[in-house]
Automatic annotation (TrEMBL), chain A:
<keyword id="KW-0479">Metal-binding</keyword>
<dbReference type="InterPro" id="IPR006680">
    <property type="entry name" value="Amidohydro-rel"/>
</dbReference>
<comment type="similarity">
    <text>Belongs to the metallo-dependent hydrolases superfamily. NagA family.</text>
</comment>
<protein>
    <recommendedName>
        <fullName>N-acetylglucosamine-6-phosphate deacetylase</fullName>
        <ecNumber>3.5.1.25</ecNumber>
    </recommendedName>
</protein>
<feature type="binding site">
    <location>
        <position position="245"/>
    </location>
    <ligand>
        <name>Zn(2+)</name>
    </ligand>
</feature>
<keyword id="KW-0119">Carbohydrate metabolism</keyword>
<dbReference type="GO" id="GO:0006046">
    <property type="term" value="P:N-acetylglucosamine catabolic process"/>
</dbReference>
<feature type="binding site">
    <location>
        <position position="188"/>
    </location>
    <ligand>
        <name>substrate</name>
    </ligand>
</feature>
<feature type="binding site">
    <location>
        <position position="177"/>
    </location>
    <ligand>
        <name>Zn(2+)</name>
    </ligand>
</feature>
TrEMBL record, chain B:
<dbReference type="GO" id="GO:0019262">
    <property type="term" value="P:N-acetylneuraminate catabolic process"/>
</dbReference>
<dbReference type="Pfam" id="PF01182">
    <property type="entry name" value="Glucosamine_iso"/>
</dbReference>
<dbReference type="GO" id="GO:0016853">
    <property type="term" value="F:isomerase activity"/>
</dbReference>
<protein>
    <recommendedName>
        <fullName>Glucosamine-6-phosphate isomerase</fullName>
        <ecNumber>3.5.99.6</ecNumber>
    </recommendedName>
</protein>
<comment type="function">
    <text>Catalyzes the reversible conversion of alpha-D-glucosamine 6-phosphate (GlcN-6P) into beta-D-fructose 6-phosphate (Fru-6P) and ammonium ion, a regulatory reaction step in de novo uridine diphosphate-N-acetyl-alpha-D-glucosamine (UDP-GlcNAc) biosynthesis via hexosamine pathway. Deamination is coupled to aldo-keto isomerization mediating the metabolic flux from UDP-GlcNAc toward Fru-6P. At high ammonium level can drive amination and isomerization of Fru-6P toward hexosamines and UDP-GlcNAc synthesis.</text>
</comment>
<dbReference type="GO" id="GO:0005737">
    <property type="term" value="C:cytoplasm"/>
</dbReference>
<feature type="domain" description="Glucosamine/galactosamine-6-phosphate isomerase">
    <location>
        <begin position="12"/>
        <end position="234"/>
    </location>
</feature>
<comment type="similarity">
    <text>Belongs to the glucosamine/galactosamine-6-phosphate isomerase family.</text>
</comment>
<dbReference type="InterPro" id="IPR018321">
    <property type="entry name" value="Glucosamine6P_isomerase_CS"/>
</dbReference>
Length: 438, 272
């Protein structure tokens, strides 16, 4: 017997996910999840205001529903390298977007490593913000950070199924890791394309990147002269500034944070090691110079290789609410062992490790986001809720998009990942539609 | 009256839920014949609601042809406030069962005209054909719904100012901030509940014992408004051992002796 629907606000069909545990208010709760028009619906409001009911029920068979994972550092995968200006940049992004649905990732920032200006110019003009759907995970925009944004002007986008769905204002999308980084800590980045702020700062950026329109995040080394102006200007434009590939000491890092930097790129990797008289960038986790109303987030590659478990635990215990899981996945993620290209260099896969060919320098990881969540939980001993939030809520907080992403709050986009208790992905949904099932 | 004495809170909830279940099944409601139920909020009925939800999930009962009228609601707090009685009913009963929203009625504490809201609530009860079974609780001061001591025994649905004791007791639900606690509420009157064809009062805990004594062993008195039900032809009081602590031994022995008869009222009914 199905209840007749009688909704006064909207005729759109309502889906009720039953027999599930949802991640809400930092806890897994036995609650049903309601979705209408691609967004999470308040069932109490539906009941009292509209006297409405569900049109269809999805039996989750006891699974966990978490907000879809958000990967803010992913360089490519499945043979695609975002830092290569191929003839089909959009096709490449779309392919990765589709494949990572299997890992529970519903939104991501395509990341470009240090590259020559022509690469940036080509790629940035092609990679546009795109809302997720059956075709793949959404390339993330960044909601305007200013509080006075007029919400009535949200862009209406159409999914391939034909439903009109409203999303957050998206206007940026990539994470540019370099080239304004430290020579000493270049890691796998090609030395010949590193740059400094020799023309004063923003001019160098525009010259190198061509445009900042499709940029959500920039990783730079704050010790480079003239960086202060750049950090301030980028932050003011709503672009997340991340510190990484740097030999900055703690004061330089703190100054950058005060100027607007809010993220640390893959903590511990490509920065000075913690020293008890100058903790360097790592010291930001417990710095007392961070403005009261702000949080410094830090990316963690929890693949069991880039960071020793004990170091992971130290960071997590020092600053649990700032931990953001990233894959830093490279072209070879999803591919068999062998040699592959990354940016302007060649890398080599050996088992779960990826090295700069001919060296023992780690080149990036090939772990998937769900692997990282599982490994993080196991290594840190944290709760399921904390592990899931590190891949969803925290990146959304970092990017300032928690109104739409990273939570299962009423009104948020219904980007969901269904998982079993061992945190294996069983199904992925974007805007309330199933886009992948195991 | 029937005084049902059980061992503890859980047994009270279960007995009451079974009683309601059997009443609804025996009534045999249908699209032209709704069962009208009056409902309370608070800690006392929670156990009963949990059991009703269990019975619904087992398929023993359906609320498809049941209409409900709640006793009261705070004035001036948002409907979706976690402490509003709308939220209470949604979270503790409605969202777990198959009741239709249009068949539930809770006073609107944010209505533009509160007096009109109360009058129209009375009209809605009348239009539904009157209440078949009104379930309620009892306050430590012997009140039914928000009919505090001194409320007329002939009162109807109206706006009431809450007693200082009540406000202090409620502060814990509003972050301990007295300024956030509602000071007024809309409530059904004593006579509104008396109009029901049957009344069931749930009483658990030693802090309610004195009120129960005043309600059933002393006279009808507007200072203990639950005492009004001594003059209702069909009242059931369901209580636990602790709530009987102020009663005469003779009263308790008499009604305990009747339990084997009264328990037949909650036996599972034969399938149709």
């Amino acid at each position: 017997w199905k209840m007749p629907t009688n909704k006064s606000v909207s005729k759109a069909p309502i889906t009720q996910f039953v027999n599930c545990r949802i991640l809400r208010d930092h806890k897994l709760q036995r609650e049903d999840l309601w979705v209408r028009e691609g967004r999470i619906l308040d069932p109490e409001k539906l009941f009292f205001d509209e006297e409405g009911y569900a049109d269809q029920r999805v039996d989750c068979e006891g699974l966990i529903i978490a907000p879809g994972f958000i990967d803010v550092q992913i360089n490519g995968g499945y043979g695609i390298d975002f830092s290569q200006a191929t003839s089909n940049v959009r096709g490449g992004v779309a392919l990765v977007a589709k494949k990572i649905l299997e890992h529970g990732v519903t939104s991501f920032l395509p990341t470009l490593v240090t590259s020559p200006p022509n690469i940036y110019h080509k790629v940035l003009s092609e990679v546009k913000v795109h809302s997720g759907g059956v075709e793949g995970a959404g390339v993330l925009g960044k909601e305007a950070v200013r509080k006075d944004v007029d919400t009535s002007s949200y862009v209406r986008l159409v999914l391939i199924s034909g439903h009109d769905i409203q999303y957050c204002i998206p206007y940026n999308c990539c994470h540019l890791e370099g080239p304004f980084i430290s020579l000493e800590k270049k890691g796998a980045h090609p030395e010949q394309y590193l740059r400094s702020f020799q023309s004063g700062g923003m001019l160098d950026l525009i010259e190198t990147y061509g445009t900042l329109d499709n940029v959500a995040m920039v990783t730079l080394a704050p010790e480079l002269p003239n960086s202060e102006k750049v950090v301030r200007e980028l932050a003011q434009r709503g672009i997340t500034v991340s510190l990484g590939h740097s030999v900055a000491n703690l004061s330089q890092a703190e100054e950058a944070v005060q100027n607007g930097a809010s993220f640390i790129t893959h903590l511990f990797n490509a920065m000075l090691p913690f020293h008890h008289r100058d903790p360097g960038i790592v010291g930001l986790l417990t710095s007392d110079q961070v403005p009261q109303d702000r949080t410094v987030f830090y990316g963690m590659i929890a693949d069991g290789i880039h960071t020793n478990s004990a170091a992971l635990r130290i960071a997590h215990r020092a600053h649990p609410t700032g931990l953001v899981l990233v894959t830093d996945a490279i072209t070879a993620m999803g591919l068999p062992p062998g040699r592959h290209t990354l940016g302007q260099q060649v890398i080599e896969i050996q088992g779960l490790h990826a090295y700069v060919a001919g060296t023992k320098t780690l080149s990036g990881s090939i772990a998937t986001m769900d692997m990282c969540v599982r490994h993080f939980k196991q290594a840190s001993g944290c709760s399921v809720e904390q592990a899931l939030e590190a891949a969803s809520l925290h990146p959304a907080q970092l990017l300032g998009i928690t109104r739409c992403k990273g939570t299962l709050d009423y009104g948020a986009d219904a980007d969901l990942v269904l998982l079993d208790d061992a945190i294996n992905v069983r199904a992925t949904y974007i805007a309330g539609q199933e886009v992948w099932r195991k | 009256m029937k005084l049902i004495i059980l061992n503890d809170y859980d047994q009270v909830g279960e007995w009451a839920a079974k009683y309601i279940r059997n009443k609804i099944i025996n009534f045999n409601p249908g699209p032209d014949r709704f069962f009208i139920l009056g409902l309370p909020t608070g800690g006392t009925p929670l156990g009963c609601y949990k059991k009703l939800i269990e019975f619904y999930k087992k398929g023993e009962i359906s609320f498809k042809y049941v209409k409900t009228f709640n006793m009261d609601e705070y004035v001036g707090i948002p409907r979706n406030h976690p402490e509003s009685y709308h939220s209470f009913m949604w979270n503790n009963l409605f969202k777990h069962i198959d009741i239709k929203s249009e068949n539930t009625h809770i006073l609107d504490g944010n209505a533009a005209n509160l007096v009109e809201e109360c009058d129209s609530f009375e009209e809605k009860i009348k239009a539904a054909g009157g209440i078949d079974l009104f379930v309620g609780g009892i306050g430590p001061d012997g009140h039914i719904a928000f009919n505090e001591p001194g409320s007329s025994l002939l009162s109807r649905t109206r706006v009431k100012t809450l007693a200082q004791d009540t406000i202090l007791a409620n502060a814990r639900f509003f972050d301990g901030d007295l300024s956030k606690v509602p000071t007024m509420a809309l409530t059904v009157g004593v006579a509104t509940v008396m109009d029901a064809r049957e009344v069931m009062i749930l009483i658990t805990g030693v802090h309610k014992a004195f009120a129960l004594y005043k309600a059933i062993e002393e006279g009808v008195n507007h200072m203990w408004t639950v005492s009004a039900f001594q003059q209702h032809p069909q009242t059931v009081f369901v209580c636990d051992e602790d709530a009987t602590l102020e009663l005469r031994v003779k009263t308790v022995k008499y009604f305990r002796g009747m339990m084997h008869v009264h328990n037949k009222l909650v036996d599972p009914l034969p399938p149709k």
